[in-house]
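Still learning folds. Look over my entry:

…
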Amino acid sequence: MNTALARVIRRETRRIADSWVLVFTTMIAPIATFLVIIWLFSDGVVRDLPVAVVDMDHTEFSSKVTRLIDATPVCNVKWRPGSLDEAKQMMDAGKIDAIVVLPIELERKVLNNGTPAIAVYINNTNVVKGGALKSGLFTTLSTISAGVKVQVAIKKGATPEQAVQKARPVNVNVHLLFNPFGNYSYFLVLGLLPLLAVVFIFLGSVYALGIELKEGTAGELISLAKNNVTVALTGKMLPYTFLFFMDMMVMNLILIKTLGTPLHGSLFLILVSEILLIISYQLLAILFLKLTANLRLSLSLGSAYTMMALTFSGLTFPSIAMPLIAKLFSLIFPYTFWLQIFMSETLRGEPISEVVVPFLAFIPFILGGILAFPGMKRKLTYHKYWFRD
């Protein structure tokens, strides 16, 4: 190993050991955050959301409908108000997320083969909860409706098979791929953990290098590297590359072993993508510092930059439905391409040919950071860039 490079690495290793901030940022905070997220989403699916049932019929059948709604995993009938206005007030107060109104003469119309209308009001402010309630309630009510039709048909002389066929003339055969249990952990945690890792990688790298400028030790760093900025920055970042990669290994264990995320593809490709992700964000941290020469400003801009990656990655809103400008904006985040690789190799098990483009997408980020080296050398060398807040 290059003697100057070895000296820079040893120096940075000592600086990490002597700095509580660096130890916390690189080792303690990422792991602690991973564990908190896993705990928050430990249930995996949305359950027992508060629902109000306004029973205006007060019959045996309406009571049965209420019990079946309460038995739906996503619903918890906590309230049975006497009127729709009272139920709407409860929804406005945030006490409930859905209202089901069972109309007058519900039982009579059902028994007479009528078509009573059951009104359902869903608070869709939270799209995840709203979607779960809509799916759960409509499935339950459709099942009840089909059951009533079967019973009526049997009473009219049809065989059970004929009654079922009449109640469900079209049999839909649905296959849920990649996430058959509808587990929100596969959807949210799979994206949140690496995003948090990215935040710590970027901000930790900005802080580690930016503190050299703020405290005026940048001259010592570049001198130890014999005025070679490539040696200085490589030796500076390598210890953090290793530590952040260890954090990613813990993340992989949590996602695959603890959470049970499927691994249908290549673990090797995932590990390579994670190394490229770390290097890309470390080099982008150098680019940010080169442009600002200010630790505080780089941390502020970096926080916004890293957190926006989740919004434009296509995880929370499908990229295919985004307007063109949003699709183009998503290309400025390495996280976008890493997520494509991770999804491809875990949930879908796609061949390597499907992830070649996302792998190549890391190159511009890496080159952009490398091209910032000459400008960063000026920041490390000249005193006018030091001791800035």
Notes: The chain has a mean pLDDT of 85.
